[in-house]
Amino acid sequence: MLIKSAMLIWICLTYVLVSCESKTSSNNTRNTDAHQGQLIIENDTNKSQIKVLREEQVRNSTEVHASHPTNLHPDTIHYKVNEPDLILTLSYKLKEISGLTYDHDKDQLLAVNDEKGNIYHLDPSSGKIVHTFDFGKRGDYEGIEKVGDNIYVLKSNGHIYIKNDSMTSGSELLRTELREANDVEGLGYDRNTNSLLMACKGKSKISSDQDFKKTKVVYALNIEDGSCAKDPLLKISDEALSKFVQLAYANSKDLKSYVKRVTSFAPSAIAQHPFDSSFYLLSSIGKLLIIIDQHSNILSVQFLDNAIHAQPEGICFNKNGSLYIGNEGKYGIAKIYRFDRSKL
Fold this sequence. Notes:
By secondary structure, the chain is of the alpha+beta class. It folds into 2 domains: 1-33; 66-339, 6 Propeller (Neuraminidase). The chain has 4 helices and 20 strands. The strands form 5 sheets. It has a 4-stranded antiparallel beta sheet, with no helix packed on it. It has a 4-stranded antiparallel beta sheet with strand order 2-3-4-5, with no helix packed on it. A hairpin with a 6-residue loop joins strand 14 (269-272) and strand 15. Helix 3 runs antiparallel to helix 4 (255-262). Mean pLDDT is 83; it is low at 1-72.
């Protein structure tokens, strides 16, 4: 009799406990539903909350280009962009260095200097000039890129000068659809589309029927026939940048300053990463490094230290993934910084 009574009591207690747990679980579910789509960023950001925000943004997004941040952690980048691993001090001839690329065949850095029609071949370990090639007259040269046997030099009015390895002097001129009003400062190469990338610091449109309000763009130039696609390959809006920074740097005491800096974004250089095909864009104005994917989604926003990056104007990578950033000698001697790729 005692055993039966004890069993009856145990069964009753078990039923009560299960009922309580079920009720608690139901309440938790309702609380989760009530906060869906919201993000409360604390010092230790909750990954599940970020996932919820991303899913909500994807559902609400009506456009592909830079509509939402894809990475809310500002430190998820393989480079400490304010802590160089190597500092290259440049010749006075490159005081106004305005473009930078890497010649993987010769294992050399290539640079151009604003206002001078010269291509400078540099030793990547010392920064010393090992060769100079005269390709044209004085002009506002802003970018340089090496693709195959050709070196391409960009002028701010959209003109591109082509120097082949077989040439001993001079260059060929290619006139693109871009103009002086576009103030084209960045030249890169997209290996996925086999096209040159031209980043506009000035006006974004190249025809009267285009409308890019508070948006910076990058146009693609077909290397085979020299034609430029009317629609930009990449678009980055002030709104998208501002939203990204407000989320990624929500706990920073410098948030207000960061938002102001990022909305002044005006690309001065562009390069594609050799490993993941993402695009790295520099902006001397605001001292910024913006990283985006091939659909213009923002991956990271890095704020450059003005004490190091006086005027960042050139960017490139070597085969090992090391990042090079060239700075004009605004208050002294021009420098190139190398940042080695590190594990996250």
